[in-house]
Amino acid sequence: MKHKFLGYRCSLCGEEYLHEEVIYVCPQDGGNLDIIYDFDALKKTLSIESLLTSREESIWRYLALLPLGTGLEEPTAITHVGWTPIYSPARLKQVFDVSDFWVKDESCNPTASFKDRASAVVVSRAKEIKADVVVTASTGNAGAALAGMAAAADHKAVIFAPRSAPPAKIAQLLIYNATVLLVDGSYDQAFDLSIDAAEEFGWYCRNTGYNPFTLEGKKTAALEIWEQLLYPGSLKDPLHIFVSVGDGNIISGLHKGFKDLLELGWLEMMPRIYGVQSEGSAAVANTFLAGDENIIPVSANTRADSISVDLPRDGVRAVRAARQTGGKYITVSDEEIMTAIPELGQVGVFAEPAGAAAYAGYKKALIQSIVNHDAPALVLNTGSGLKDVNAAMASVKPAPVIEPTLRAIEKALNKI
Amino acid sequence: MKHKFLGYRCSLCGEEYLHEEVIYVCPQDGGNLDIIYDFDALKKTLSIESLLTSREESIWRYLALLPLGTGLEEPTAITHVGWTPIYSPARLKQVFDVSDFWVKDESCNPTASFKDRASAVVVSRAKEIKADVVVTASTGNAGAALAGMAAAADHKAVIFAPRSAPPAKIAQLLIYNATVLLVDGSYDQAFDLSIDAAEEFGWYCRNTGYNPFTLEGKKTAALEIWEQLLYPGSLKDPLHIFVSVGDGNIISGLHKGFKDLLELGWLEMMPRIYGVQSEGSAAVANTFLAGDENIIPVSANTRADSISVDLPRDGVRAVRAARQTGGKYITVSDEEIMTAIPELGQVGVFAEPAGAAAYAGYKKALIQSIVNHDAPALVLNTGSGLKDVNAAMASVKPAPVIEPTLRAIEKALNKI
């Protein structure tokens, strides 16, 4: 019997490869590879009903739609990743005068970011192909996610991080027992170094926008949004999804998930996907606006470290995610990002700057009438605010210090 | 029809009160109040089967076993709290030479600690009794949890924190839009001040070991352990549960949950509950060892800020939780706690010092033959390591900085 996972298709030249022919990118032009499924076979074996009644409360409920299980061993369901909650915050709906608004909160993933989805699938793949060491270059979340997922699966991870990464993220790498090497150079240098090291030492490279399995892990968020919100078609208009964009792999993953659902005939309306970038790191937004697929590197400078990227490694697919779904790209200033942190906080969601950026983008889209107030919208918070406490503290007024007396309380409360 | 929630019983003198008669502690001796249920009625209306098939993946699956719903409004199911994962880390089972070992990880709660369970129930209660403002004194997690749950429920919170609380925890309070007052004094002074302020300004006080609803929120962890691990009785021996103890309310909450299950006839064997305290903050352990119920304050000094408590406000019930279940108290040094952080990390669980303390206690109990290697054991991680990144960094060796060359990698790897 053929496996559901048929092979790869280059996102640039369209060339197809069998799944044992290539590992990372297209040998001809370096393009990112899309994984091809045998949807005819899947349609015959899968039923929505069995999925909807699954008691697996993690991304592993979608195992049948992941490119795993080609090895001799059963795929390893590593730890409790995904199946994150969707909130519908009343206060923000009132403020924005909208009736359908949701936040999907990825901060409750095991390492507190969206990236666990990708790392869990990559580590599972590594186990299948008997790759003993997984390596990645990361500014933080992807590395922490790889370190955490590898630890949970008792697998070996090596992480190259730029030495400027935030302390909380480096702490996670070390605690999860990864081999951490702080590269005295840029993220791009760390990226190239990790690829060279993978080749030199026979490691399996998880790099985003390079390893085709990260996208498949990330698409599970789209599958969840579909299952938690869209099925069986209660919305009258397409859902408008706002997601922050750095290297472009998350937005591309969401797009892939919805495309897979369309192929299966399970999705009624393709959501419109809106990419939000920081003005200081807007390479993908620039390309979107230029109307082509030519990604020109920038010299990134933004407070939102997780989406601070000079050269987006998955830029082309990221542009298409918005372009092909009727979405757009929106850029926001660091000031707008910082304002967004306490605004999301006041409804109980504590986001890191990159996560808050998506919310800032939605707000701007409403104000500038890019989206209507009656358009159903979802904002994805991609990471916990605990990842960058300094940014959080800078986004709010400090708390007053008082003497332990009732009089001091009264005085302080009058001032607030 | 009578409500399932009949009233309160003082944990010290045994005096009973109707649920509208008192709010916080016993008017006669200040003892903590236990909530009394009409178990005969509950037994008639509740079925295990309907619980086990519930699709509510949060503490609200146990709403029927919570003292809510006495108001005119339906109880408010605030946000996605609890129903946290239980892991069975292969590597640690091998290291310890044990066959049944689990970690229940509370770090994936919305504000990244166990305390969300209590705060969600208290805020829900506040809504029922139309208390517009909820106040608490907290060294960190309880305050963050109250602020987060209040934000999610669009409710007003006031938090008194000692000005020495860790920055990550203060950041959470502010981001969640609570009114934060940093008290220039000890936690005990902040505690007393919050009670005075509640009375003076008509606020509802959430303080741990004072408000009887926190215990009910915390008992949900026991209900989950039962449902996820113990039902329908697959273990041959009683489960040994290790939990860190500060003010004593978490361990008392676990005990209450299991007692409720016994009353319902749903629990086969009462687990043995082991309290773990820091040597520098061991008031409850001291009382346990003394064999009485006389809690003598200490001058607490430990790196594990969440369990650093001079006067445990729920000490008596905390002593009983171990004593009445055949458990014990174990004290661990700060060094043992710090060593525990990366040991838990290497299986994918990133704990704050207080959370790691429970693991350190289990390890010590094994080494000292306080528990056997064939005893099934569960360690509760009560909070995320991201809450105290400085402690995490102090528990591991710093990562080496390298030039971006393969040669530098080889050199660094040889040293590791």
Give a structural overview.
The structure is a homodimer of 416-residue chains. The first copy, chain A, is an alpha/beta fold and 416 residues long. The first copy, chain A, has 15 helices and 14 strands. Chain A has a 6-stranded mixed β-sheet with strand order 4-5-13-10-11-12, sandwiched between helices. Chain A has a 4-stranded parallel β-sheet with strand order 8-7-6-9, sandwiched between helices. The model of chain A has no long low-confidence stretch (mean pLDDT 94). Chains A and B meet through α5, α6, β8, α7 and α12 of A and α5, α6, β8, α7 and α12 of B. β8 of chain A pairs parallel with β14 of chain B, so a sheet runs across the interface.
Write out key terms for the chains shown.
homodimer; alpha/beta; Rossmann fold; 6-stranded mixed sheet; 15% strand
Short description:
The structure is a homodimer of 416-residue chains. Chain A has 416 residues and is α/β, with parallel strands linked by helices. The first copy, chain A, is 39% helix and 15% strand.
